[in-house]
Amino acid sequence: MRSDGSNPCRHIPKFPERGKTRLITDAELKRLYAYLSKAEAEALEQPFILLAIRLQFEFAARMSEILKLEWAWIDLDNRRVEWPDSKTGGMSKPMSAEAVRLLESAPRLEKSSYVCPSIFDPNRPMSKHTYYKGWRRILGRAGLSPIGTHGIRHRSATDIANSGIPVKGRHGAHGAQDRHDVHALCPHRRRSGEGSGRRSGVSASGPDRRCRGGRCYEVSSRADRARDGVGIDGRRRQAARL
Description:
alpha+beta; three-stranded antiparallel beta sheet; 10 helices
């Protein structure tokens, strides 16, 4: 037994504790998307801020990746976005049908190369300050407690981790892989069209499907799931009933 005060680590300073980003819940996500739709319909918010929020959810992207996104990096025909440089270097991400819809219908300023340009100077990307203030304002108006913009990325990455994709297929969820809610489908189910429909949270217009590593996957957008009320908690409830 050591005597009192004899701990050799007693005077060694501790590493500072950092705040943790909490996870956006299914209920919060539904309320958030309800307000985003209302804000778009009634012009309650600056449209480029609304677009940036939706795109960050769609791509599980860092805030800076969305704010610096340029039209020249987007290939709508092949449904891919190529970031020439990011925190982890160059990366490529596929687009879901919802991401394509957002980009095709996005307001585009003739003299701006940015998807989400600055409100005051279209030749510059939207500032982090403007985006963060808009995000905090939207959370308040949606009746949600504060959470940083990185919470968007955390929620999207969590959906990928809980989607059933093999670990190898999840690699790049924070970098070179899209964020969408992905449900594994075997090849014969893909051909027959099974596994689609409202129960799995897929859009009524039909699922978006892709193949990775020889396996087929069904992809639905964040907006579809928020609209249908199907999320992490909902998926667990469905599994319990099966």
